[in-house]
Amino acid sequence: MALRDERVTLAHGGGGRAMRDLIEEVFTAVFEPPGMEDQARLMDAALVEPGARLAFTTDGFVVTPLEFPGGDIGKIAVCGTVNDLAVGGARPLWLSAAFIIEEGTEIALLRRIVATMAQEAAAAGVRIVTGDTKVVGRGACDGVFVTTSGVGVIPPGREMAAGRVRPGDVALINGVLGDHGATILAARGDLALSSDLQSDCAALGHLMEAVLAAAPEARAARDLTRGGLASALNEIAEAAGCGIEIEEAALPLRPEVLGLCEILGLDPLYLANEGRLVVFVPEDQAEAALAAMRARPEGAGACVIGRAVAGHDQVRMRTAFGGQRIVDMLVGEQLPRIC
Fold first, then answer.
1. Are the C-beta atoms of 281 and 169 separated by less than 8 Å?
2. pLDDT tens figures, 216-238
């Protein structure tokens, strides 16, 4: 084994032997990309199917701490990009991964992050086929930043977009809300809080395929990341030009998450999730979609939370007391920031 350093140095980003050793032993030995060219050369039978379309997405990940109960930055990077493709109806196929690494970062930590990424990619049915590595001086970044891009294929005839939601469509989510955001807040350690919460981080490509097989006329889906359920619903309502009404009593929230929100003055509807989505389906396909979600481990807690309505273009929630309140788009950000 050529790489004997315990921590990353600036030499590992200098383009010479040290950089090559880092890339080959930490990254490519695990990801096993096809070839060692400056680009991935890709082919899949789905690409030549008449009417198929490519889907492409990219995202950056800067979570603190880098490792937390239920995952790490590598898991979020893979799952987040897979989910961005899946909620648009695409079947995720390939990912790229670019790393910005702070001088002094433990190489053992990098190995754990990369191993998690490889494990999650395999479980999601995607391959990490190309990437990049940069090393910056101490203080220039917070340990490790990861940027992933993803490519998938949308099968012929599959159309999903927020603008397709119509009054009467039913809104489903695949499990409890806010676990990821609450876990990160507790894991940072600067709030003197402790809990047994774990991040909900999960890749949802297989779940979306099950939903679309059961409810082929599904209108739209969003993964509930920063801004949480509230922001996703507002984006859909704006694009569709109709209202969305949800039931507070139907929202699945753990007591620990509710308690954390009460202590900090946060609204759980805006907490980040990394393994949750909302999907709108026609009413006559809602039961089939719900059953399909519950049949998978990442959808075991699936439930109906509301529906799209005519007459207004807001997101409204019927409260446990029988009243209504507007659930608006988040203005600014909830504090403390989690990523």
1. yes
2. 999 999 999 989 999 999 999 99
Cα distance between residue 294 and residue 284, in whole Å: 17
**Are both 16 and 87 inside the same structural domain?**
yes
Q: Are 119 and 175 in the same domain?
A: no
Check whether 1 has a pLDDT greater than 70. no
pLDDT for residue 34:
85
Q: How far apart are CA 242 and CA 164, in angstroms?
A: 10
pLDDT of residue 164: 97
The torsion defined by the Cα of 233, 239, 244 and 248, in degrees rounded to 10, comes to 10
279 within 8 A of 218, measured Cβ to Cβ: yes
Beta bridge partners of 130: 96
Same domain, 72 and 122: yes
Residue 191 has pLDDT above 80, yes or no: no
Domain annotation covers residue 263: yes
107 and 172 part of one domain: no
Quote the pTM value: 0.94
Instruction: Say which residue, 5 or 136, is predicted with more confidence.
Output: 136
- Is 304 a member of any domain? yes
CB atoms within 10 A of CB 60: 13
Say if residues 205 and 122 touch (Cβ distance below 8 Å).
no
Q: Which residues pair with 94 in a beta bridge?
A: 127, 151
